[in-house]
Amino acid sequence: MGNDALSAETETAPVVDYRAVQQSEEFQRLRSKHRRFVFPVLGACLLWYLAYVLLAGYAHDFMSTPVFGSINIAILLGLAQVVTTFAVTMWYVSYANRELDPIAANLRDEIESGTSVAAFSGAARSEGDR
Amino acid sequence: MLHFAAAPAASPGEPWLNIAIFGAFVAITMIIVFRASRNNKTAADYYAAGRSFTGGQNGSAIAGDYLSAASFLGIVGAIAITGYDGFLYSIGFLVAWLVALLLVAELLRNTGKFTMADVLSFRLKQKPVRIAAATTTLVVCFFYLLAQMAGAGGLVSLLLGVGDQLGQALVITVVGALMILYVLIGGMKGTTWVQIIKAVLLIAGAGVMTVWVLALNGFNFSTLLDNAVAVAGNPEILNPGIKYGVSDVAKVDFLSLGLALVLGTAALPHVLMRFYTVPTAKEARKSVVWAIWLIGIFYVFTLVLGYGAAALVGADVIAAAPGGPNSAAPLLAFELGGPVLLGLISAIAFATILAVVAGLTITAAASFAHDIYASVVKKGKPEPGAEVKVARRTVVIIGVVAIIGGIGANGQNVAFLVALAFAVAASANLPTIVYSLFWKRFTTQGALWSMYGGLASAIILIIFSPVVSGSVTSMLKTEEINFAIFPLSNPGIVSIPLAFFLGWLGTVLDKTKEDPLKQSEMEVRSLTGVGAEKATSH
To answer: Are B468 and B487 in contact (CB under 8 A)?
Structure first.
């Protein structure tokens, strides 16, 4: 709103005050939803992998216990790593579709159409040719 | 079960059949590359395929790029000979993709343009950070490329029956020349199509063999394991420890390798660059999801194929064949489907090398032309069209270097180079990627200390490790020279934490502050996709 002249001058995107967007409540919500998911989930997955590697290295007898016929715990845990990787992937996709994408799309629309609080003549001009 | 005790020593199957099938692959992909490359005009077309691939296509291409000959031939062979420890290795390669999915793919797509350096230098000082990022990119690509090209020589002796050095050098030259042609003409679009076709063939081929092996064992995996144990005469092949459990050092070594695999994947420049070939961050996410499914399923196939090779071919025959463990998958194919299946699998293995080296070459060329030439030398204002011209010339130079390096490294012990490439990526690139995306305070000095510190420590540790000197199985192939003062073969467990620490230390000791507005812009753009590079329309 009200930055037509500026838009014409810079041709493409309106000048965006990224600082104001960053401090806006909506963006903070997006940021915290993103971080509150990816950090703990990735941390848990890496610990689970580390536990698997350490078991394979230091718990031979446990890993060598047969469970179904000749299929032992080592093979089951290896396949479990594959299964958890698939499961976490699908979990993240559904979380991102449900919780992250709508907020991100909304913010993007607001900024690009210039209706956001932030899209007045701010100082941060989007750099041209990085 | 059939057991060809008289498996031919030189090359099973028909070399000419193998060459004909590979020739057909080259002809078909070449036509596709020509057709796909008619619109290669701008840098975005050449480096990022106009950002026009779908998530599914890009995910298949990522799988094609990632499942190198080392994963296919190497892991099947490792399972066939060292049993469970070979599988242990592949799990790290898969779990690693969660780092790419959760931390890197989308944010990188939203903030960058063509290269890894675009993201790393976004809010830091352009020139020094770009030079550092381009350096680590070129080093990782070079190690990876050399390992692939050297592997081609070994593969040739097995698959085409070319035993002498001159013949192998000729084949390496042909592979290199084909790769140059693909990348020169096709750019990222051509490279991507080669990788997609190869991924489909590789996964389908491995799938058919997997079902076949299971069918021979009454679709009972436990029976297959019993047969493998019976042929090997050693029940230990089902348990971890044959390779990585021999000593305390070997155990720590594996931990170190696992760390590098898990943290290195999401920082491999040629993987990162693939995320720019899709139109949006959401498609980048879909790409990783596709890649995770394809790669995960493939590694489960390799488990069956590895034990299948142990049961149907036998570890002794595999170890004695030319190419050693790498021959397990081709020999299994011969055992199952005779010369025709062997020819198909051989052609797929060659296609694998071709697709992987093409991906590495375009990444290295883009990094040189975009980061060094256009951004540093020309200060971001190159003549129109000059950047792509420089990129094309770089492709030729890298191709020639790869051919010469591949011939030179042929027959050398350079298998450690792939693991080293992962370790360098995890140490030199990942800390800076993570800090610049998630740590507000991060500064240029922190980035430089972390990147150069991670790069130098990984390489110095490997030079003083047992893979370079001190034994007949080392690179120098003699016990006479021994400067292996670092006990591990994988530097990751030291160099990765060190690089994270240096990034932190360099930042807190830095008196200058970075532009806070750039930080705001990067954070907003990375999460919302505002101002992200759009697909070019043709």
So the answer is: no
